[in-house]
Amino acid sequence: MEKILIIDFGSQVTQLIGRRLRELNVYCEIHPFNHFPMPDADTLGVILSGSPASVRGEHAPAIDLTGIKGKLPLLGICYGAQYLAYHFGGMVENSDSREYGRAMLNVVGESLLFEGIPQTSQVWMSHGDTITKLPEGAEIIGSTADVENAAYHIKGEPTYAVQFHPEVFHSEKGLDMLRNFVVKVCGCKCDWTPDSFIETSVADLRAKLGDDKVILGLSGGVDSTVAAVLLNKAIGSNLTCIFVDNGLLRKNEFEDVLASYQNMGLNVIGVHSGPLFLSALEGKTDPEAKRKAIGKTFIDVFDAEAMKITGARWLAQGTIYPDVIESCSVYGQSSKIKSHHNVGGLPEKMNLKIVEPLRSLFKDEVRRVGRALGIKDELIGRHPFPGPSLGIRILGEVTEDKLSILREADAIFINSLRAYKCELPCASEPGRTAYNLYDSIWQAGAILLPVKSVGVMGDERTYEYTVALRAVISTDGMTADWVHLPYDFLANVSNDIINKVRGVNRVCYDISSKPPATIEWE
Ligand code: XMP
Predict the structure, then answer these.
(1) Residue whose CA is closest, atom 21 of ligand 1?
(2) What is the pLDDT along the chain (522 residues), one digit of tens a residue?
(3) Which residues of the chain does CATH 3.40.50.620 include?
(4) 3-state class (DSSP) for residue 65
(5) Closest ligand 1 atom, residue 385 Cα
(6) Residue in 175, 199, 47 with CA at minimum distance from that of residue 121
(7) d(Cα 98, Cα 93) in Å, to the nearest integer?
(8) Which of 323, 337, 338 to probe ligand 1 with, by most ligand atoms within 8 A of CB?
(9) Nearest ligand 1 atom, CA 337
């Protein structure tokens, strides 16, 4: 089976390269630079990823490219481009021409990589170092206003390099450039599709699990839901799902989601544990301390519930491919920005074996599998929601009062997004159309700030909280851009929140991209 190998130098967005190639129906594997398999006869090309490191650094991640460069099609991205320059006769320096965010790429001359790409298009940059001299035998194929050597080709070799990130959604023609690389440079047929995924994994799960009992933690999110339905198809009533109400969920979320699970024929135990989580959060203001408190309480609650299921041998998890890749740390100092706890620590404590039916899939592939399994759009199209829930959208200490303020404001925002009709690209599944704002947005929510400000309502002075609204488009949460919501929409939501939610007299809209901001405020 033809494949492309991606060498991971530890960039936050390496897995997007893989996701993009899968979108092009090309099978690919991501491997850390220090455990890289030698390309075999099926390897049609190699991609070098970006990295948080500098190629000039003492501990810069490195790889021996003998046997690859000049022999197989090779594409260097960001750090990968600098790596090829630095090690093959060029020069990389920390210069003034670093760029973060949007830049306009001008195509120079003719190359296979940029065939059919418009003369000028937006690309996404994120680099401190700059290539000041091209490697031996290279010619410039693209420049930006600040960076002359933004893309190059090594003459006589199928070796290409780009300083920007074509894998990132905000590089307008990035997917076309990657298609050019895999089709025109590597000669891929692009015939890998996940169609048979359900059939083969149901058979594999039956063979692996036999008559064993399996426990699965449902969260209301797409991954755990699809994993549950797939397992249910494979082993039926031997699967028991546990859905924990951590008291930090959105308005009516627990009841609504539980009802849809039950309608799908899943065997689900719903556990109300809000008070336990709230008392664990008492007095805690630091985001990481809050995450840890929520994570630990979740494990305790889940464990106690799971103990009641006699004879369980397996714990199923909705782990997807990005989690698998993320978990292999390629570079010691590669920045851990926030600890995403999910169910870490559970299996050890419970002495269960792990089964992860979605381990090889990217998020949009999970959605496609979910649809094929007959899961309703409301569940498939739900925005991602963090495990610590509203606990990290109330900045500072979490209290019952603040939770009810935030729940109301958030419900107004989310319901208004669903009600606003439009025709835009769907945010979660390439190629689909969104008919309301909610589906055109990757993730949205309200945040309660620990800031009170003065206002006036009627004849009275008020001194109340501020709510921030956040709406972003993204592909896998690793980079994101704020959504240009219509002004009339923002005006109505702001009005509604201030008029209907007691305790709020001011609404702001967050216009920061990631990086440098993150999606969640904590
Ligand atoms: P950030 O804030 O890091 O978020 O830009 C990226 C994506 O991850 C989600 N997120 C979390 N998910 N546990 C989770 O399960 C967490 O602690 C957590 N923190 C952030 C966030 O909602 C976004 O989708």
Answers:
(1) 386
(2) 789 999 999 888 888 898 899 889 898 888 889 888 899 999 999 999 999 899 999 889 999 999 999 999 999 999 999 999 999 999 999 877 667 889 999 999 999 999 999 999 999 998 889 999 999 999 999 999 989 999 999 999 999 999 999 999 899 999 999 999 999 999 999 987 767 678 878 999 999 999 999 999 999 999 999 999 999 999 999 999 999 999 999 999 999 999 999 999 999 999 999 999 999 999 999 999 999 999 999 999 999 999 899 999 999 999 887 777 654 444 443 344 444 444 455 656 677 899 999 987 888 889 989 998 999 988 999 999 999 999 999 999 999 999 999 999 999 999 999 999 999 999 988 788 999 999 999 999 999 999 999 999 888 999 999 999 999 999 778 889 999 999 999 999 999 999 999 999 999 999 999 989 999 999
(3) 194-380
(4) coil
(5) 22
(6) 175
(7) 10
(8) 338
(9) 3
CA atoms within 13 A on the CB side of 363: 22
Q: Pick the catalytic residue: 127, 153, 165, 341?
A: 165
Q: Is 384 close to ligand 1, i.e. is its CB under 6 Å away?
A: yes
DSSP designation for 373: T
CB of 340 closer than 6 A to ligand 1?
Answer: yes
Tokens of 442: 């990757």
Q: What is residue 329's DSSP assignment? A: -
DSSP 8-state class, residue 316: E
Per DSSP, what are the bridge partners of residue 43?
3
Catalytic member of 78, 186, 188, 426: 78
341 Cβ closer than 6 Å to some ligand 1 atom: yes
Å from CA of 481 to ligand 1 middle:
15
Residue of 519, 521, 522 with the most ligand 1 atoms within 8 Å of its CB, for mutation: 519
Specify the domain boundaries for CATH 3.40.50.880 within the chain: 3-185
Asked whether 373 and 233 are in contact (CB, 8 A), the reply is yes
102 C-beta closer than 6 A to ligand 1 = no
CA of 386 to the centre of ligand 1 (A): 5
151 contacts 123 by C-beta, under 8 angstroms: no
Of the options 3.40.50.880, 3.30.70.1290, 3.30.540.10, 3.90.470.20, the CATH number for the domain spanning 3-185: 3.40.50.880
Identify the CATH homologous superfamily for domain 194-380: HUPs (3.40.50.620)
Would the CB of 94 count as within 6 Å of ligand 1? no
Is residue 165 annotated as part of the catalytic site, yes or no? yes
Query: Tokens in use for 201?
Result: 């994994």
Rounded Cα distance between 198 and 2, Å, is 22
Which residue, by CA, sits nearest to atom 23 of ligand 1?
Answer: 477
CA of 472 from ligand 1 middle (Å) equals 13
Domain 399-509 falls in which CATH fold? GMP Synthetase; Chain A, domain 3 (3.30.300)
Number of Cβ within a 10 Å radius of residue 130: 22
Residue ranges, CATH 3.30.300.10, the chain: 399-509
Residue nearest to atom 16 of ligand 1 (CA): 340
